[in-house]
């Protein structure tokens, strides 16, 4: 299994409007955003992270959000220049930018490519008009498909996201929609089940009985359709929600799931850095204006920067690694935690068909186990 490498996550916290299901750190600023101010703050925070973790080789950069495709290509280019000044960037580094597929944003694609972005991840979310409207998305199906086509002509690599298990969605309708998506799909698809997060407008509707998500049986059928349809098309899940043709996996996300090292910059970004051989947890201030002011005053917006306990590292390693189809390296778990997973628990879960060993050294969750992944991880973590 290749080493995870070092990744840099850049969080752009602004969106044109707030989607009713979203609980990400995203903010709407009707008066506009001073991109010059934020670029200067990103530069300073990147330099701070490089001082904490000098000499790394950057294998991937990921612009997430929020809506990073609201950044100008100059802002993106300025941040990439700052990363290049702070660390050595591998010549074949994966540089991904999340984009919303409206026609306005598609106009910036060439600028992002010129700035160094070589992979886009498009938030398509649905390929039918009614569901796009219900999800509060600002693009049409036609715009999304045009953006996918344009992205594939400009960037060497592209991915798009869909949300399923939407209110009223049948397995047959999802099979048709997913097949259409795969026909258009570049090389990578992220397929997320709609979850109702507390504090969102969807949660209020759900509680009032005005929004119904599929029942357990339908959810399971939708999950099965997802796996069968993508496997048949040669895009199996390499992670619980991510599907790729062989070799087209997201290198950046593999850094997280393989429990690698990464710096997070921008409001509400998280990082895990090895400092003096200790793995540290880092998080920044979530509010954009407070973050910018903190960086201007102190050179960083960190609100958490502390070593992780051995137990916390062991839990994170299991939580992340067991999401992957390749599973976890049991010897690495031992090195990290100083203990071995309880063989009786492994045997019980194996008998139940939830996990399986791969050779002597690896353990992975089975297809039967993935729909109940949280319970499997909790059981193994003991
Ligand atoms: S575009 Fe993405 S980050 Fe922004 S509100 Fe919608 S789901 Fe949230």
Automatic annotation (TrEMBL):
GO terms for molecular function: 4 iron, 4 sulfur cluster binding; coproporphyrinogen oxidase activity; metal ion binding. Pfam families: HemN_C, Radical_SAM. Residues 1-236 form the Radical SAM core domain. The keyword 4Fe-4S applies. GO terms for biological process: porphyrin-containing compound biosynthetic process. It is found in: Cytoplasm. Keywords: 4Fe-4S, Chaperone, Cytoplasm, Heme, Iron, Iron-sulfur, Metal-binding, Oxidoreductase, S-adenosyl-L-methionine. GO terms for cellular component: cytoplasm. It comes from the Bacteria. InterPro entries: Aldolase_TIM (IPR013785), Coproporphyrinogen-III_oxidase (IPR034505), Elp3/MiaA/NifB-like_rSAM (IPR006638), HemN_C (IPR010723), HemW-like (IPR004559), rSAM (IPR007197), rSAM_sf (IPR058240). Its cofactor is [4Fe-4S] cluster. Belongs to the anaerobic coproporphyrinogen-III oxidase family. HemW subfamily. Probably acts as a heme chaperone, transferring heme to an unknown acceptor. Binds one molecule of heme per monomer, possibly covalently. Binds 1 [4Fe-4S] cluster. The cluster is coordinated with 3 cysteines and an exchangeable S-adenosyl-L-methionine. This is Heme chaperone HemW. It comes from Methylopila capsulata. The lineage of its organism: Bacteria, Pseudomonadati, Pseudomonadota, Alphaproteobacteria, Hyphomicrobiales. The gene is hemN.
